[in-house]
C-alpha cells in the first residue's frame, strides 16, 4: 500500500476499487478454505492469469513476495516434518496466492481509491461512523509507516555514532519522543490544510 | 491583495511574552518577517491562519476574526512549514496534492484538472506517481507548496521554508515563491530570499523593531543580529518553541 501503486491502463487498473476489494476478499477466503493441492494448483493458474491481465512488472510483484519467503523458509520445513508434504504445500500455496492477489490489488489501485471505497462501504453507517474521518485515519496510518521507519533509522544511526549500540533505551526513548512530536506536527499540518472540522 | 490586520496582539508561552502588543496591517504582495530565534516571528506567522491564537488583541484576515472564524480563514490562508516531511499525508505525489481537494467536494474532472495544474506549476508532473516520502528535500517542499496552493488560497504563509534545504534546493524553492501571484508572508533567516520583497518586518523579543522596505529593514536586522548575545535570549527562544508542537 505504501507507494507501491504502479500506474497503468489494464482492465484490472480500470476496475472499481470496491469490486477489486470484493473479489480479493472472496478469492482469498476461497483459497484459505481449500485443502486440495490440485485445486490450489488450478488457483495458481487463475492468479497468474489475473497478474498477467493487470500487466504489472514481475519484479514489483516479486518484491511483495520476498518478505513472505522468509516465513515460508521456516514454516514449510516445520509442516513437512510434523504434518507431511501435502499440508506443507497447501499452506505455502495459500499464503503465496493470498500475497500475490493482495500485491496485484496494491499495484493497480491508488490509495485514494481504496479510501473512497472504504468510505463508500461505511456510508450506510454514517449515523454512527464519520466515513471521512475513518478515511483520514487510514491515510495517516499508511503514511505513518515510512515516517516511523525514517525516525527509527535516524535514531539507530545516532545511537551508533555515540557508541551506544547495546542500549535498547537509547532507541526506545528518542523514537517515542520523536514519533509523538511528528504526530503533533502532522496534526498541525492537517489543521493548516483545513482538515480541522 | 487581502488585508491581514494585527490589533494589539500579544501571546505568552510558559509565562514569557513571545509576541508583545503588536499592531500591523499587511496589504502588500510579498512580506518578509525576520528576527532571531525566539523573537516571535513564527508565532506571529502562525497566528495568521489560527494555528496559534492570541492571548490579547485580534488577528483579522479580510475582516474575519481568526480566533472566531478559523475555518473560513484557513480556506483563504495556506501554510507551509519548515519540515515538508510532516505535511505529506498521502503515499504518492499526486494523491497528496489531491488530498487537499477532498474537502472541496469538486467534480472528479475539475479536481484532476486542478491537481494537474498544481503539479505542472511546481515541475512535479513527472514525479506524480512517485512515493512522496522518497522525494528529495527540495522536491518535498515543492510538493508542500503544490498541496497548499491547489486549494487556491488568497494568502500563503511560509515558516522558514528553505531552512532545511541545501543551497541549490533553497534557490529552487525561493524561485517558485518569488513567482507566486498569491499574497505571500515568509518567515526566514535567509535574508537574500527577502531582497525583492515589498516589505520586511524585523522582530525582536516579541516586538516589531523595524517595518520598512528590505533595503532599510534587512541591514537593521543584520546590525541587531551582529550585536546581540544575551543569555536571556535562550529562555525566550525556548518559550517560542512552545508555539510549535
TrEMBL record, chain A:
- Which InterPro entries does the UniProt record give? ABC/ECF_trnsptr_transmembrane (IPR003339)
* Pfam families, per database record: CbiQ
Residues annotated as transmembrane:
23-53, 65-85, 91-108
Question: Which domain of life does this protein belong to?
Answer: Bacteria
Q: How does it sit in the membrane?
A: Multi-pass membrane protein
Chief location of this protein within or outside the cell: membrane
An example Gene Ontology CC term for this record:
plasma membrane
| Localization annotation | Membrane
The protein's UniProt keywords, in alphabetical order, are: Membrane, Transmembrane, Transmembrane helix
Listed PANTHER family: PROTEIN ABCI12, CHLOROPLASTIC
Name this polypeptide is given: Cobalt ABC transporter permease
Automatic annotation (TrEMBL), chain B:
This protein's record includes keyword Plastid: no
Which chain regions cross the lipid bilayer?
none
Q: Would you say which domain of life the source belongs to?
A: Bacteria
- Acidic residues: compositionally biased ranges: 226-238
Keywords in alphabetical order, please.
ATP-binding, Nucleotide-binding, Transport
Tell me which GO cellular component terms the UniProt record holds: ATP-binding cassette (ABC) transporter complex
Tell me which family the UniProt entry assigns to this protein: Belongs to the ABC transporter superfamily.
**Any one GO molecular-function label of the UniProt entry:** ATPase-coupled transmembrane transporter activity
Domain (ABC transporter) spans 4-230
Identification of the protein by name: ABC transporter ATPase
Amino acid at each position: 500500500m505504501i507507494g507501491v501503486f504502479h500506474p497503468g491502463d489494464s482492465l484490472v487498473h480500470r476496475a472499481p476499487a470496491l469490486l477489486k476489494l470484493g473479489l480479493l476478499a472472496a478469492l482469498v477466503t476461497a483459497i484459505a478454505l481449500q485443502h486440495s493441492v490440485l485445486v490450489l494448483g488450478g488457483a495458481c493458474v487463475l492468479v497468474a492469469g489475473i497478474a498477467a491481465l493487470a500487466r504489472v512488472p514481475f519484479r514489483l510483484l516479486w518484491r511483495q513476495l520476498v518478505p513472505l519467503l522468509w516465513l515460508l523458509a521456516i514454516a514449510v520445513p516445520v509442516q513437512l516434518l510434523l504434518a507431511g508434504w501435502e499440508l506443507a504445500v497447501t499452506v505455502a500455496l495459500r499464503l503465496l496466492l493470498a500475497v500475490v492477489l493482495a500485491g496485484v490489488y496494491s499495484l493497480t489501485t491508488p490509495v485514494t481509491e481504496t479510501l473512497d471505497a472504504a468510505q463508500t462501504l461505511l456510508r450506510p453507517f454514517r449515523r454512527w461512523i464519520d466515513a471521512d474521518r475513518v478515511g483520514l485515519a487510514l491515510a495517516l496510518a499508511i503514511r505513518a509507516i515510512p515516517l516511523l521507519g525514517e525516525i527509527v533509522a535516524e535514531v539507530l544511526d545516532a545511537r551508533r555514532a555515540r557508541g551506544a549500540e547495546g542500549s535498547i533505551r537509547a532507541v526506545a526513548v528518542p523514537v517515542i519522543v520523536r514519533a509523538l512530536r511528528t504526530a503533533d506536527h502532522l496534526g498541525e499540518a492537517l489543521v493548516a490544510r483545513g482538515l480541522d472540522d | 491583495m487581502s488585508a491581514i490586520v494585527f490589533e494589539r496582539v500579544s501571546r505568552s508561552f510558559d509565562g514569557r511574552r513571545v509576541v508583545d502588543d503588536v499592531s500591523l496591517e499587511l496589504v502588500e504582495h510579498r512580506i518578509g518577517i525576520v528576527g532571531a530565534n525566539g523573537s516571535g516571528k513564527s508565532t506571529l506567522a502562525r497566528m495568521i491562519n489560527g494555528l496559534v491564537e492570541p492571548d490579547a488583541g485580534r488577528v483579522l484576515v479580510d475582516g474575519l476574526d481568526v480566533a472566531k472564524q478559523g475555518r473560513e480563514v484557513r480556506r483563504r490562508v495556506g501554510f507551509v512549514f519548515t519540515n515538508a516531511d510532516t505535511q505529506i499525508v498521502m503515499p504518492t505525489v499526486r494523491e497528496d496534492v489531491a488530498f487537499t481537494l477532498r474537502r472541496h467536494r469538486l467534480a472528479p474532472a475539475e479536481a484532476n484538472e486542478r491537481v494537474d495544474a498544481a503539479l505542472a506549476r511546481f515541475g512535479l508532473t513527472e514525479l506524480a506517481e512517485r512515493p512522496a516520502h522518497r522525494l528529495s528535500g527540495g522536491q518535498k517542499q515543492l510538493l508542500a507548496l503544490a498541496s497548499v496552493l491547489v486549494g487556491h488560497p488568497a494568502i500563503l504563509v511560509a515558516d522558514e521554508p528553505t531552512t532545511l534545504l541545501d543551497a541549490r534546493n533553497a534557490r529552487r524553492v525561493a524561485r517558485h515563491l518569488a513567482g507566486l501571484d498569491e499574497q505571500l508572508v515568509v518567515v526566514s533567516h535567509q535574508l537574500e530570499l527577502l531582497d525583492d520583497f515589498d516589505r520586511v518586518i524585523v522582530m525582536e523579543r516579541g516586538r516589531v523593531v523595524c517595518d520598512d522596505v528590505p533595503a532599510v529593514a534587512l541591514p537593521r536586522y543584520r546590525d541587531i543580529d551582529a550585536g546581540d548575545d544575551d543569555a536571556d535570549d535562550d529562555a525566550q527562544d525556548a518559550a517560542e518553541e512552545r508555539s510549535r508542537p
